[in-house]
Every structure is written in structure tokens, then in C-alpha cells.
Amino acid sequence: EVQLVESGGGLVQPGGSLRLSCAASGFTFSNHWMHWVRQAPGKGLVFVSRINRDGTSTTYAGSVKGRFTISRDNANNTLYLQMNSLRAEDTALYYCARGRSIVRATGFDHWGQGTLVTVSS
Amino acid sequence: DVVMTQSPDSLAVSLGERATINCKSSQRLLYGTGNESYLAWYQHKPGQPPKLLIYWASTRESGVPDRFSGSGSGTDFTLTISSLQAEDVAVYYCHQYYNTPYTFGQGTKLEIK
Fold it and tell me: Closest by alpha carbon to A35, among A68, A8, A1?
């Protein structure tokens, strides 16, 4: 069974940092592009970042570019999101999501339960 | 960025009736002469992660009931629930994976009338 379990969320002050993790199991992690998607309270889904299978290619939403860094450890089946210079508007539930196809982009077929990040003083 | 616009923002439908949600993209989600639109639909219930329903605009994900169907091509897409069930109450999102940054529609909240 495919499982994605996020951790690392919490309360942080503006300007602070957090590192989110997503532990993957039940599939060959290194075969899939991985993604972070967030949902602010009462709002919709927003793409944050994606990383290719071997970690050599990354993409970011404009709102987080230069502040967030996505990475992965295929030996330990873990996806990361390093978040620096956090702002109040980064407050959200952060989901990791698996790319459905190993061949090309095809939507996200498995999602974790999410980890909550709250940026507040 | 590709802008995805859903309509309506909310929808109330009677049990057993048809529900239709529309999604329009600001650019075509097709490459060249291809016939596959890079468009997915998700169902999102409170307290749960989103669930993939449809990809390539009309391909149903494994295990998704056949009352869910997707249609459209290019810039205009539709998600149809042929006979609404109580468990279909959720927010539905369209999502383009044609170009990065990927983008989602604003969501359509579906309720029972």
C-alpha cells in the first residue's frame, strides 16, 4: 500500500525556518516525481514545488522561489521541503503528493495527510 | 502562469441528479497535434487529502465510480457526476499539469439540495 507521511510542521515566527519531511513507502520512491502542495486555511490547493526522480531538476511557485528548497533522499525514501524566511502567508497545511506516472506528468495519485505550518509571532 | 477558472463556485444538487462543474484554462492544455489535455480533477473532503478522480481530462482513475466522468479539450473542461450520492459532497478542483508552475482552479463546493 502506498503511504506518504508528512512531518515537521509547527508554529514558527515570521522570518524563521522549518524543514518538512515526507516519508514514502509501498512503492519504488525513486521512480516517481514528487511534489509539495499547500492549502491555506479556508482556501484552495496551491502548487508549491516539484522534484524529478533523481533530484537534479526542481520547480517552484513564484511565491516561494528563493525561500524554499525541495530535495529528496532516494536511499531513505524521503522527500523534504526546507522553508526559510517564512511569512504569515505561508501558513497552510502542506501535502506531499506523488506523480502518478513514472513516464510523464499525469497528475498526483497519492497524497499524504498533510502537516500544518503556522507562521505567527 | 496558466490560470484555471472553475464555475460555479458552489453547487447544490438533489440526490440522484446530475452535477456539472466547469473549468476553463487561460491557455490550451494540449501539446502540438496531440489529443491529450493535461488536465486532472480531484475530490477533496474535509480532514482528508485530495483524491485523484480523472486525468488526461477524461481518464478515470482506478477505483473511481463510473458516475464520475470528465470531458473537454483544449481550454474548456467539465466534470460530471451522473447521479449524485451523499458521499460525493466535497470540494472539487481542476488542475493543469501542462506547464509549471502547475495550477489549480479555485474549487467548487458541491452540496446536497
Answer: A68
pLDDT for B5-27, tens place per residue? Answer: 999 999 999 999 999 999 999 99
- Are A114 and B101 an interchain contact pair (Cβ–Cβ within 8 Å)? no
Residue owning grid cell 513507502 = A25
The cell for B47 is 480532514
Q: How confident is the model at residue B85 (pLDDT cuts 50, 70, 90)?
A: very high
Q: Which residue has the cell 516525481?
A: A33
Residue of chain A nearest B9, judged by CA positions: A44
**Single-letter code of the amino acid located at A21:** S
- By CB atoms closer than 10 A (0-12, 13-18, 19+), residue A30 is middle
What pLDDT is attached to residue B33?
A: 73
Asked if the Cβ–Cβ distance from A59 to B97 is below 8 Å, we say: no
pLDDT tens, A96-106?
999 998 778 88
Chain A residues in contact with B4 by the CB 8 A cut-off are: none
Report the percentage of chain A scoring pLDDT > 90: 95
Q: Can you tell me the distance from the alpha carbon of B56 to that of B30, in angstroms, rounded to the nearest whole number?
A: 10
**What DSSP state is assigned to residue B36?**
-
Rounded-to-integer distance, Cα A49 and Cα A29, Å = 17
Residue A85 in grid coordinates: 524566511
| Closest residue by Cα to residue A80 from A90, A89, A72 | A72
For the stretch B29-60, pLDDT in tens is: 987 777 889 999 999 999 999 999 999 999 99
